[in-house]
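User: Just a sanity check before I run the rest of the batch. Below are the C-alpha cells for the first item. I only need the designed sequence back.
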C-alpha cells in the first residue's frame, strides 16, 4: 500500500462529505416540494426511482469510463453533473424537470461513488476507506439539518438545494484543477499495513487493464456483487422499516421509536469512526467476518419483540459499519487490481439494486403477512450476507479465482 497524496486525501474527505449532503435531503424537503408542485405522496417514489436507475447505469459504466478517460476526468465531469442536477432541483419550474434533474444527479453520483471508491481502494487503505464512509455519513446527516434550518427560517426548499449546489460546484472546480493528479498514482510506501491473506498488492494505477466482460468472468467479482447487494439490503431495510415496525407492529410510542431509529444510524456512523482506528491492526478480512457475524446477532435481537428495539438496532448498526468500506478496500486484492475499477462500478450498481429490491420485498411481506414479518426478513438477509461472505473469503484466497 502507498502513502496517499495529502491534497488528494483531503479532497476525497471533502468530496464524501459534500456528496452525502443531498442524499438525505429529499425526505425533509418533500412536504414543501409536494405543495409547490401539487403532487400526491406517491410521486416521491418517482424521483427516487429515476435517480436510482441512472445511478445503477452509471456504476455499470464507470470502469469503462475510467479506462477511456482516466479517473481524474471522471471525477471532475461527474461532480459537475451532480452540481448541475442539484442546481436543477433548486430552479425546476415543473416536476417533470425536477425528475430530469434527479436523473442527472443519479448518473453523476454513481460515477463519483465508483471513482472515489476505486481510487481509495488502490491508494488509501482500509483505515481511510472506513473514515471516508464516515465522512459520507456525516454529510448525509448534515444535509437534513441544513434543509430543516432553512425551512424553519422561511427560506424554502429551493434555497437548501441552491446552497448544496454551490458547495458541490466548488468541489467540481477543485476536482477539475487537480484532475491530472488522480491518475499520477501515490508517492511513497506506507509502512505497517496488516494484510490477512496472500495476493497481489493493490497498488499502481486505477485504470483497468482488462475488459468489463473479462472482469465478469472472475468468480470473486460475482461473489462481491452478491455481498454488496445483501449488505445494502440489510442496512437500508433496517433503517427505513424499523420505525414502522416499532410503532405499528409493536406499539412503541412515536418519540421512543424515533429515538431508537436514530440510535441505529448513530451506531453506523460511530462504528465507522471508531473501527477506522483499529481496522488495519485487526485486518480488514477479520473485521469483515466479525461484522457480518455480529450483524446476524443484532438482527436476531431486533427480531425478538420482548427485547428493547434499541438494543438490536444499536448492535446491528455498529456491526454493519465496517462492511461497505472494508469490502471496497479489499476489492483490488480479491478480484485483481487489473479489474478493480470495473468491479467497483459493478458493486455500486449491485448496492443500488439491494437498496431498491430488499426494502421493497419487506414492504410486500409486511402487506401480505403483517409488519411482524419484516424483522425476520432482515435477519434472513443478514444470515445470507454472512454465509456468502464466508464463501467469498474462501474463494478469494485461491489465486486462480482472481484470474
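Assistant: Here's the designed sequence for the first item:
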Amino acid at each position: 500500500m502507498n502513502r496517499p497524496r495529502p491534497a488528494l486525501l483531503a479532497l476525497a474527505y471533502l468530496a464524501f462529505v459534500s456528496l452525502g449532503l443531498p442524499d438525505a435531503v429529499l425526505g425533509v424537503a418533500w412536504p414543501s416540494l409536494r405543495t409547490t408542485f401539487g403532487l400526491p405522496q406517491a410521486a416521491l417514489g418517482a424521483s427516487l426511482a429515476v435517480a436510482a436507475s441512472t445511478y445503477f447505469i452509471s456504476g455499470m459504466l464507470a470502469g469503462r469510463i475510467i479506462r477511456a478517460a482516466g479517473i481524474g476526468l471522471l471525477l471532475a465531469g461527474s461532480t459537475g453533473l451532480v452540481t448541475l442536477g442539484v442546481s436543477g432541483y433548486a430552479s425546476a419550474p415543473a416536476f417533470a424537470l425536477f425528475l430530469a434533474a434527479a436523473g442527472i444527479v443519479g448518473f453523476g453520483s454513481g460515477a463519483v461513488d465508483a471513482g472515489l471508491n476505486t481510487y481509495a481502494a488502490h491508494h488509501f487503505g482500509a483505515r481511510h476507506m472506513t473514515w471516508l464512509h464516515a465522512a459520507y455519513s456525516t454529510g448525509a446527516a448534515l444535509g437534513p439539518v441544513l434543509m430543516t434550518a432553512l425551512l424553519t427560517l422561511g427560506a424554502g426548499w429551493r434555497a437548501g438545494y441552491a446552497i448544496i449546489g454551490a458547495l458541490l460546484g466548488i468541489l467540481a472546480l477543485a476536482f477539475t484543477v487537480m484532475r491530472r493528479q488522480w491518475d499520477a498514482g501515490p508517492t511513497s510506501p506506507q509502512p505497517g499495513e496488516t494484510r490477512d491473506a496472500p495476493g497481489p498488492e493493490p497498488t499502481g494505477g486505477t485504470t483497468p487493464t482488462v475488459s468489463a466482460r473479462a472482469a465478469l468472468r472472475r468468480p470473486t467479482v460475482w461473489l462481491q456483487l452478491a455481498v454488496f447487494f445483501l449488505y445494502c439490503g440489510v442496512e437500508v431495510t433496517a433503517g427505513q422499516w424499523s420505525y414502522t415496525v416499532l410503532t405499528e407492529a409493536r406499539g412503541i410510542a412515536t418519540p421512543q421509536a424515533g429515538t431508537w431509529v436514530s440510535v441505529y444510524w448513530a451506531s453506523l456512523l460511530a462504528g465507522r469512526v471508531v473501527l477506522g482506528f483499529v481496522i488495519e491492526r485487526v485486518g480488514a478480512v477479520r473485521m469483515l467476518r466479525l461484522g457480518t457475524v455480529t450483524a446476524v446477532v443484532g438482527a436476531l435481537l431486533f427480531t425478538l419483540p420482548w427485547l428493547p428495539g434499541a438494543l438490536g438496532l444499536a448492535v446491528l448498526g455498529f456491526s454493519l459499519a465496517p462492511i461497505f468500506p472494508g469490502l471496497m478496500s479489499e476489492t483490488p486484492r480479491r478480484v485483481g487490481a487489473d479489474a478493480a475499477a470495473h468491479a467497483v462500478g459493478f458493486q455500486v450498481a449491485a448496492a443500488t439494486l439491494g437498496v431498491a429490491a430488499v426494502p421493497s420485498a419487506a414492504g410486500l411481506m409486511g402487506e401480505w403477512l403483517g409488519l411482524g414479518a419484516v424483522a425476520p426478513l432482515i435477519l434472513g438477509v443478514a444470515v445470507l450476507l454472512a454465509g456468502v461472505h464466508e464463501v467469498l473469503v474462501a474463494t478469494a484466497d485461491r489465486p486462480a479465482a482472481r484470474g
